[in-house]
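From the shared-data thread, chain only:
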Amino acid sequence: MNMMKKTSFIHICSLFFLTSIYAQDSQKDTKNQERNPDKFKQMYDLLATPNMYRTASGAPGPEYYQQQADYKIDVELDDKNQKLYGKETITYTNNAKEALDYIWVQLDQNQQAKNSKTPLVQNTKTEPAIPASAFSRRFLEEDFDGGFKIEYVNDVNGKPMNYSINQTMMRIELPTVLKHGEKISFSIKWWYNINNYLLDGGRSGYEHFDEDGNNLYILAQFYPRMAVYNDVEGWQNQQFWGSGEFALPFGNFEVNITVPADHVMEATGVLQNRNEVFTAEQLSRYALAEKTFDKPVVVVTQQEAMAAEKEFSDKKKTWKFKAENVRDFGIATSRKFIYDAMAVKLGGKNVMAVSVYPKEGNPLWGEYSTRIVAHTLKSYSSHTFDYPYPKAVSVHAQDQGMEYPMICWNWGRPEKDGTYSDRVKNGMTSVIVHEVGHNFFPMIVNSDERQWTWMDEGLNSFLEYLALIEWDPNFPADRGPAKNIVPYMSGDQKGLEPIMTNSESIRQFGNNAYGKPAAALNILRETVMGRELFDYGFKTYANRWKFKHPTPEDFFRTMEDATAFDLDWFWRGWFYTTDYNDIGIKEVKRYFVSNEPSKEVQDFLNKRRRRNANPGPMVYMIAENSVDFKKEMDKPFEIKDVKALDEYVQSHFTKEEQLKLNNPKYFYQVTFDKPGGLVMPILVELTFDDGTTESYHFPAQIWRMNDLEATRTFATNKPVTKITIDPKEETADIDTSNNTWPKEQLKSKFD
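Structure, as tokens:
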């Protein structure tokens, strides 16, 4: 910095100091409640204290641990009577430092038990008109009994173990305490009636096809599953009521599934005996699919599936699967299944994208399903980590959307004549992307769905949105765009809960746990942080916690730790409150530069002038319509017209430097107000008289000293004809009627 520039800097600082003193004096009577630092307060009062298990950075700590549950399962499907019989051996490893004297097993199928308490916690009303079938099932017929029938719980020697069942949880007493690093193996035998999910509800079960008498099975929660024990809550102890999904440990699975010989199946894991369950032709087609990357290869054809539909074989066939480091297991089986597949290259290895569907899904499913699976794996991997499992399977099931490791069920059925609307096609695309995406959250980044639905559904809905617009930039995505969450956030506060609400206490489930977190993350990425910073932080979180059990604190802290971006104000407002965003333009004042001070300034200078104070020559700003404003002031600003400024410029800048100075002509002071409770960035667009525009982005911290108002002065080269807040609807502003100057008149329905 040369001496001339240094001198000018000192004079500018003097002017700034005087201006600041004047502003403070003029606001000395401002009420204290206008200053609200709480919106930017650090979240020590809300977040769990960091420890050796989970660090303040959001990373797993040096003492972090997680339990392991390995399964060997044999199940057999009774297709004629819709029953499932099973027995399993669970090997449970205690990696916690503390010893365990009992263990908990989840019996989620008991939600379908005859004595289930789930129906008793639902509110019911008497409808004025009820379909006869619904009336019969509700009031006349005996309740369906789909709960587990436990035949035994035995130790490795076949000796019975003591256990007790509390609804959907089973406690098994251990003969001796299970110490750190020790394992225990035990066996369970069970059976249950499989529910028709279209009639009895549920996330799994079967669909019956009256036309051909076949069933399509999607089987999950079909086996007793170990509950999670961790450093946060000890044993997971919340019942399965239906909304809060599953908290499960990782482990390895060996599963043998016996079904009618004419069934086609997919399931979690790698099929071990494909040469026993596929025909020679199907084996050849599958081998081709493993080398085909541009389009699906049909492995089991529609003609083969239609032929199988008629046979109803009395013979049996066992499909054998192995899966490593997964948290759950799902099965889809039917003689109606068409099967297609293609390879996807990810991170130097090939992954199989697969779809199974009945003829009722075509032509829609044959054309799109597997292609969408492949796209989803590529998109999600680019934003997180390379997909680590060997395959991802999309299963067509009417009115379903549910996820399990490597397999998921998805709706989207054409009309009987094969036609379908854009709505059905787009809905199917969305649900396939979403459910396949769940492989990443929570199947790999394994959050506790029983506690925090948003940690998997919200994060997944955000990535779903990115994948959909990468699939088609014009895709009509419901969740993700900020403007789409406005109706929810502007709704009656009595019907809203913060995102940080337990899964079973959320009334508007889709909006709260899916839509709002997705919009929040999109706003973070596009408007608050920028893509580069956000993507780095999000990838860091995904990689830190893949194959582990993160909490909300781990996510919040990692996003800040990896980006040096303080987001406490954002988490507090968006996730812990039901506040909404509403920022408006309160006032716009034009200012003109003058050689003469206003009376207000003159009085202030006379009162505040101190001995030996020499602020130097002053430039005076006169507001339009003030008592000191004169008509001749209403003209574009020129440096030469203001003597003190002209002399200053001539004496402090060289001719070359003068040419580089800004040359504003017009000055506009804009006062923004904030009727909404959220603090958010202020996005401003100025429109000039020639139709051109200029954009400004003021960070949310502009509100830190005053939670009610913020003021900015814009110096422009051209007259401003319009000022707009959030012109692209990026901040979920619930009321745009106050977002423009001059205020736009809303047209009535009669205009």
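Confidence is low (pLDDT under 50) at residues 1-36.
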